[in-house]
Amino acid sequence: MAKHLGTFAVGLDGKEDPLLITDCDSHYTYIGDKELLDYTNGAVFSLGFKQTEIANEVYKEILQYGRAQIGKGFSTQNILDMGNFVCDTGGFDSYIWTCTGTSAVEAALNTADVYWKYKDQSRKYFISFVHGWHGTSHLTNTLGQHNSLVSYPSDRVLPIVSPRWKTKAERPKEEGRVLDEILTLILEHGDDINAIVFDPCPWFLTCDFSEAWWIAIRKICDNTGILMIVDDVMMGWGKSGEWHSHNKFNDVQPDISCLGKALTAGYAPLAVTVMSPKITEVVKESFYGHSFQPYLGGIGAMRATIDIIQRGNLLDTVTETEKRLKAIGDLLIDKGYSDNYRSYGLLASYDLIDYHQFQKFTKYGLSGKVKAINCVNICAPLLIDEKYFNDIESKLLLTLEQ
Fold it and tell me: What residue ranges define each of the domains in the chain, with the CATH number in brackets?
């Protein structure tokens, strides 16, 4: 059998043979008669598996329209409606469709370059915070510097170690450190800094940024002309309780933002880069595109995803889900399996006292991964039920007891 070299290509008990999925339903994957609860797939399948309403819209859109490259002057009413929705919900007024989160970030960087070109400037550097995840292309890898095996050098990236904290009491000091480093880089590189790029809640750390951070970054950008780019692929489209992460904070508007993954609840590839009026009034065209712009199946899935979220008022349920994830964290501490946890919206990160291989979690009915820093990262779905919480709790306890 040909060998897959992709990320995390190790099956149960360390074997390289893949686990063959035979079925899926709700938040569960089945390997034969073995049921696995996927505790991270809310990052993509935010409404769970077997949503026939979404699947039917993917099918319908492809059959009816096939392809419509908006960059070449073709569109459909659904494409326009989805573009208007994603902009109206976030205070943006222009967009570029892409197929993946990586492409959305690349489109953002490209648009930033074009912005400065139209202003008769050439600003070289992007400030980013590491280790993080902004994609799998050369430049997005460099922004995050998350690959420990290969370095992705680029003379365009100015990396700063991301704010790292275990408790909220430590957060102001860490954010202050990073803000000071940003100001130092600005003094050093002056008008050659293009943009500051950040993820509202880095998945590797589950350390969300405070409102003071957002306000400070916005102020720095306003005072220097540097662009503010938010990589909202992970946290956007509901995981923070808002369509866009910045909506949680008053009067903070990114210049450019990127969304993906949850736009279609995982049922079709689609991502988008959105721009504020500040960018749109300067950039007349971006020169960024691909064969599917957008993928019509993704447009259908996005439309159905929005309908389900609005119909069930699912954004309003995020606060309760966060409480339940915190309760699990408290229980793990009481049981002596954890000494700390962090949570934000649908994300929770439980620091484990002892090391556990992720294959062990699979053995006891969970599908996901224990991070290298020895914690369990959970991303709960928007559409959730009592069984999900009960199974997360019981299966975690069973795994950690062994």
Answer: 12-51+314-401 (3.90.1150.10), 52-311 (3.40.640.10)
